[in-house]
Amino acid sequence: MALASFITLPYKLEREQPPFESNEIKTPESLPRYFIREMTKPGAKVFDPFVGLGTTMFVAEELKRVPYGIEADPRRHEWVAGQMEHWMNVLCTDSARAASIGLPKMDISLTAPPFMAINHKWNPLYGGDPSKDGYDVYLKRMQHIYKQVAQVMKRNAPVIVQVDNIPGRTFTPLIRDLSNAISKVLKLENEVTIAWQGGRDDYRHTHCLIFKNAAV
Ligand SMILES: C[S@@+](CC[C@H](N)C(=O)[O-])C[C@H]1O[C@@H](n2cnc3c(N)ncnc32)[C@H](O)[C@@H]1O
Q1: Could you tell me if residue 205 is inside a domain?
Q2: Ligand 1 pocket list (CB less than 6 A)
Q3: Which structural domain range is residue 187 located in?
Q4: 180 and 171 in contact (C-beta within 8 Å)?
Q5: How many domains does the chain have?
Q6: Local confidence band at 42 (pLDDT 50, 70, 90 cut-offs)
Q7: In a domain, 126, yes or no
Q8: Which of 77, 87, 183, 207 could form a disulfide bond with 71, CB atoms 3.0-4.6 angstroms apart?
Q9: What band does 24 get if pLDDT is binned at 50, 70 and 90?
Q10: Nearest-CA residue for atom 24 of ligand 1
């Protein structure tokens, strides 16, 4: 189905956050709710390779879809899995292992991956391991992770990546760079801009890249 390329969604964080986190890493529930409703049917398998605080997992269960996810941080993993009916579908590991941990074929993938600024060294995909620092290593690793993700997706299934550019004195064109990296392993089909209704002054909109699990 054709998605609108510009939509408006409410910016409202609906769930209590764990005491060990701020709201910074959480996506409003309205975003996964929109894409899961538009692009899947009840019973569909929904995959998030970067679970974070579980927004995609919780919304998938609310919509009677079946969530699967990976989260590397044990504290976040435990907090999310502990509130889920399908808790055994959320694994605490590196999403680079997605293709080798016995996951079933998924109908849709949706996530906000960890972001990295071009001038930072700390690579969030390796928990800051100093031997894996730098933006280029981050982009290569993201490409590798999405190569694994592609292997657990059904053919032609949508893979949605929420990403924003990072402003500042050194501007990071992360939308361009992640689309370039991931489009080597998945077919880039569309980009949807989401305007937040009632959002914070410093966060008025976001972007979703829509890939398809098809030959590139
Ligand atoms: C931006 S957050 C996801 C936010 C999520 N969409 C939400 O609304 O709660 C990214 C998550 O990816 C996790 N992460 C980072 N590197 C990872 C890796 N290699 N494998 C799995 N998870 C990873 C981080 O611990 C973090 O919780």
Answers
A1: no
A2: 25-27, 50, 52-55, 70-73, 76, 94-95, 111-112, 114, 124-125
A3: 6-10+35-199
A4: no
A5: 1
A6: very high
A7: yes
A8: 77
A9: low
A10: 52
Q: Where residue 62 sits, what CATH number does that domain have?
A: 3.40.50.150
Looking at residue 26, its pLDDT comes to: 81
Among 61, 53, 155, 144, CA closest to 100? 144
Residue 17 CA, ligand 1 centroid: distance in Å: 15
* Protein residue with its CA nearest to atom 10 in ligand 1: 114
Nearest CA owner, ligand 1 atom 16? 125
- Alpha carbon of 71 to ligand 1 centroid (Å): 6
Q: Which token pair is 94? A: 């590196």
Local structure of 30: helix, strand or coil: helix
Question: In the sheet where 45-48 sits, what is the strand order?
Answer: 6-10, 187-197, 205-212, 158-163, 108-111, 45-48, 66-70, 90-91
Domain assignment present for 154: yes
Which of 14, 21, 50, 75 to mutate for ligand 1's pocket (most ligand atoms within 8 Å of CB)? 50
Nearest CA to ligand 1 atom 12: 50
